[in-house]
Specification:
This protein has 294 residues and is mainly α. It contains 10 helices and no strands. Helix 4 crosses helix 5, helix 6 runs antiparallel to helix 7 and helix 8 packs antiparallel against helix 9.
Length: 294
């Protein structure tokens, strides 16, 4: 039997041992790169670790590729045994509402975190962000709760269209209010700097939000449910403002002496115009839908 065939047929404890050795090899390569000692034997050992870590990484990728489909099948089979998880798998609208509630809780917590920073640092900008995120969170929660009311399906659909239109109006008003804080931040040419490694965590969170918001925004276009569209649009507005906040914080952290007011003005203006346009689109789209409903 060939060596590659033997690797494919490894099971149980042997596979676990191989994975552990692979992780150790990768860890050794990282440690060797970090220490970077001039000793000859250390240099030789480093190259050995580099070679082993490359092979180990290939093997780990192979294990993941083989394992993920099996894991997905097993999880799907388990989830179908319960009503809640089965709906999460097969009902996009139900999944949107369920994850929307989770997002609502996270958004409220993040808004309170921004508010705490605003109080501690006496920052108007962080106070404006906290207020914006908090209002968006309650707007998202209101869309989810109001969209469930109505006795008949026709009544529910009409109510969801009205909620969608109201959401568009509130996005416009809220963003116009935020634009005043953006102007103040640009005029003062300063923003609050995150402490320590918090800026990296905030960057990861902002990029995650914008990627997921764009993905779900495109996916929601295929849905006829205005409640789903409203939630996705609000999530996109939330993510867009997070990108603006991240830019100002990164400039403050890595270029504190530079004049970045022009960059912040361009990005801030683009974000505000984009969200206002999104709100206007929601208003117009809902108004047309209500007229068509008669």
């Amino acid at each position: 039997m060939k060596f590659t065939d033997r690797l494919k047929s490894v099971r149980g404890a042997k596979k676990a041992a191989l994975i552990a050795v692979s992780i150790l090899c990768i860890g050794g390569a990282v440690a060797a790169a970090a220490l970077h000692l001039p000793d000859l034997w250390f240099q030789i050992l480093s190259y050995v670790f580099y070679a082993l870590s490359a092979l180990s990484l290939v093997y780990l990728i192979y294990v993941v590729i083989c394992f993920v489909p099996k894991m997905k099948t097993n999880i799907t089979r388990w989830a179908q045994n319960y009503e809640f998880t089965d709906k999460l798998l097969h009902d996009y609208g139900y999944r949107t509402v369920a994850f929307g509630l989770v997002t609502w809780a996270v958004s409220v917590a993040y808004a309170l975190f921004q508010g705490t920073l605003a109080v501690l640092s006496h920052s108007v900008w962080f106070g404006a962000l906290a207020g914006y995120y908090l209002v968006l969170a309650f707007l998202r929660g209101g869309v989810i709760l109001r969209g469930r009311k109505g006795e008949t399906e026709e009544e529910k659909n009409l109510l969801r269209i009205r909620v969608y239109r109201t959401g568009g109006i509130l996005l416009i008003v809220l963003t116009l209010a935020l634009s005043a804080a953006v102007v103040q931040m640009v005029y003062a040419n300063r923003a609050f700097e995150y402490a320590g490694l918090m800026i990296y965590a905030s960057a990861a969170y902002a990029f995650y939000k914008i990627i997921m918001a764009l993905y779900n925004l495109v996916k929601a276009r295929k849905q006829s449910d205005f409640k789903i569209r409203a939630v996705r649009n609000i999530n996109f507005a939330d993510a867009a403002v997070s990108v603006l906040a991240l830019q100002t914080a990164m400039f403050q952290a890595f270029s504190p002496e530079a004049d970045v007011s022009l960059y912040n003005a361009v990005t801030g203006g683009a974000v505000c115009l984009l969200i206002v346009a999104l709100g206007a689109f929601m208003f117009v789209r809902a108004t047309i839908a209500l007229k068509n409903q008669g």
